[in-house]
User: Fold Peptidyl-prolyl cis-trans isomerase from Tuber borchii.
Amino acid sequence: MSVLLELGETGDIVIDLLVDYAPKACENFLKLCKMKYYNFSPIYSVQKDFSFQTGDPIGPDSPQSDGGSSIYGLLEGPSKRLFPAEFHPKLKHTERGTVSMATAPGRNPDERVSGSQFIITTGDELDYLDGKAAIFGKVVEGFDTLEKINNAFCDGEGKPLKDIRIRHTIILEDPFDDPKGLREPSQSPVPSSAQLATVRIGEDEEIKEDDDPEAAEKLRREREARAQALTLEMVGDLPFADVKPPENILFVCKLNPVTQDEDLHLIFSRFGTILSCEVIRDKRTGDSLQYAFIEFEDQKACEQAYFKMQGVLIDDHRIHVDFSQSVSKLSDTWRLATNAKRQNAANSRGFGGSNQLEKRHQYREGNKKSQGSSGNTGYVFNEADVRRRAETSRSEKDDRGPKMVEDPGESEASVAMPATIGREIPREGNEAGAQGGAMIVIDIRCPGDLNDNSSLLYKRISESVSVEKEYCSIFFRQIPGSNFVICDSRK
Assistant:
């Protein structure tokens, strides 16, 4: 058993009826909705975080209002306008969205009566209403609509300045038979002149800002502030647009340039523990800018210092004290934490988006010294693979370069080797230097000269440069028009 209340631009509310606990009130409410009795009824008596009331078709502030009538009064006459309220001991106003009939004292002192008006709560644990309002339903959809009504601008009597009214009522399920004489209208009735006379600002009307210059200026400033805050949030200067300054930080200005941090700390520490006290200074010159921020551990200590230190004379300057409106410290903390999280996330992914991968290292592991001539050279990559690729490359290019002569002694490259040593760079920026050796640069005409005489070539080079028991890197530099080969060996 449910009813849908359409409140126009404000939204919709769906109410489930507790037929087993309050059958009389549920029947009355359903049949009034069916007769479109509530159409154009205003929302009134709005009390923030407590409740609001409706159900009087004209409104309680109209002289033509009779307070509303039950379905029995509409069908059987004014004598039946009110009916005894039903209070079930299990039903309490414990949660937001509780729907109950408004009641008034009856002829019998122990009896309360209801008509058409009902209350919807906008707060929790409202035991004040228990025994005064008769519960018959609860809101199951439309809590955002309740929140809009709860935050509506109202006058001193709780009536919204901009009209909020029940536009239509739709019965989703009705278990009761219609009373004798009830006729459902074929269409929604047109608002009466009495109802229209109670309209202040229509739901579809816009408030003209230029009617009240002061209000218009205030609204303009609020909009501008919200827009600026949103911009700062988008560029990352604020953690969120609605950030509020901390309530335990004091702003002190009009300081004497000679006043130091320690002076302020000593003066203000009598109010409570100070977490930080900083006089703001020029970054370039270090001169005081004559204002400071003092952060207290306790908010009450900050408030006490605000009231006691206003206009106090410090170093012949009468200071001005106020609560800090700066959020830069909060922003810095948030920004650093956010960047740290991003950095940790990036580091955890590793190379290529996976922490299981890393870049290929083309260097020796650490600074390992060679463990003998036959030991591992310490390369991260496989030397056998490198040699195999080099030999394959040379074999493919043999047909493009001159062949070595059979007699190694007659090799033009090998004979000229000692004379063509360009330079020797010990212990610097190369593979040999990493192991304490030397790099030797040699000019040759063609790498094919090394095909069959590499051992002899290394021997002659070693004899010419006097490198003993050290790792030696030999770089064969090409003559223009030829290629080059890098050979590494251990003497």
